[in-house]
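Regression report. Comparing outputs from two consecutive submissions.

Submission 1:
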Amino acid sequence: MIIHASVGTLYKLGIRKGNVPAGLKTAYLLLDGRCQYNCLYCTHSFESSSRREFLSRVLWLEISLDDLVKSLKKDVFSRICLQVVSYKNYKQDLLNLLKALKSLEIPISISVRVCDIEEVKQYFEAGAERIGIAIDVANEDLYRKIRGGNLKKTLNLIEEAAQLYPGKISTHLIVGLGETDREIVQIIERMSKINVAVALFAFTPVKGSKLENHTPPSLERYRKIQLARWLIFEGKSDSIIFENDAIVGFKDLPEDYQKAFLTSGCPDCTRPYYNEKPGKYLYNIHAEELLNGERFIEEART
């Protein structure tokens, strides 16, 4: 079993020296190995030549299970986020890791490419508090080409899991893989109706992946998708203005609409610098204090 932790997590645990990102409430862990899938955007796909200590832009360093269990405390982190690479025998490693972390009494979210509903049940029984089943690609044809598999099957599995475990299922969507605004909004609306949390990511080209030369989405487009997601979950989807398949503006925005630009996902998720470099503009803003006075907030209003 190979366990990695993000460098920000290790900073907060005091295992390595460095500046802890603002608002870091969740410990980010990675159960690592050689993935059996070939998602074209991923540093861990079996054909990728990327440096494997990275996932997206985040640097992950190995930590032993003993050191991890000794270091993690409820008064340091309010949640554990465990991302799982789909390597051979990952299921048994994940079950063993969940059982080891369960004793910490910290809520555990896992993000894993489950095969069926029985696998979902196993992880909840082993101690998971939430399970993320990623969609990533919002267009059916692009899903097959970029991620591999069947989008309809994934959506049906998410709906089945959400029915069995209401309020305990999450999903991920990546903006900028060739989908239209309407396609991604339609999936967000579908997830909202069944109480599935939606975490948004901006596509990030990473060296060594098949899509390393693909252009990331503009900040303006990403802000519009963030606003649309937030409005949908606030019950205000009528505020989204479309022209053909593109979002062109919004009406009747609440005063606190800037909250839409915060990192989305499970409770207490901040996930700092996953899509961007420190010092540049942030696609996902990881702390509320960073919202105030930022020059790009108004860019989303049309």
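Submission 2:
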Amino acid sequence: MTTEPTGSAPRRGRGRPGYDQAAILRAAVELFNRKGYDATSMGDLAKELGLTKPAIYHHVTSKEQLLSQALDDALDELTAAVTEATGDRAGQTAYERLREVVRRSVEVLVAHQPAVTLLLRVRGNSGVELAALERRRWLDDRLAELVADAVAEGALRDTVPPALVSRLLFGMVNSLVEWYYPGGAYDPAMLADAITVIAFDGLAKHAA
């Protein structure tokens, strides 16, 4: 007979057919966005899914675990993209890498829009939220460093502080959560192109 190692997390099976952990997480994020995380209980989630609370706890240990997983979903790909862009990449200027990471951030937001929407609403009311906010600050700082490198190359004007440029770039991307709907008039590639062009080339028409 085998036993679980002391201190290890309990094993979670698939549980009731039709509701795996991913499905429960998707429902939780939708409910957190609709009602607010603090105002949502595990009982609310169970009712939303038509399950009992014990059935929910078969998959997750707490509401906070669901929040943590959702915020990681929002942040992990973007963190990877920014980390890659700010590393040494032979043959690419800082300006090229900056444009690329802005474009990539649009793609990440569209792919993870519900989780990103939740991330943008956290206010640091728990350890999980504080950790997510710290990760957002890290992203801002790394992007500001890339902006500064592009300025040093002479590719960007030096009259706007890099930290402000970083905030404005992410702010433009993050504004998509307020109005973008998948399947609408604009596909992800068009959005990524438009935001990148507006951010770096502006709207003014230039003579050929």
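Expected: both submissions complete independently.
Actual: both completed, but the second showed a warning that disappeared on reload.
Relevant detail on submission 2: Residues 84 and 101 are 9 Å apart (CA to CA).
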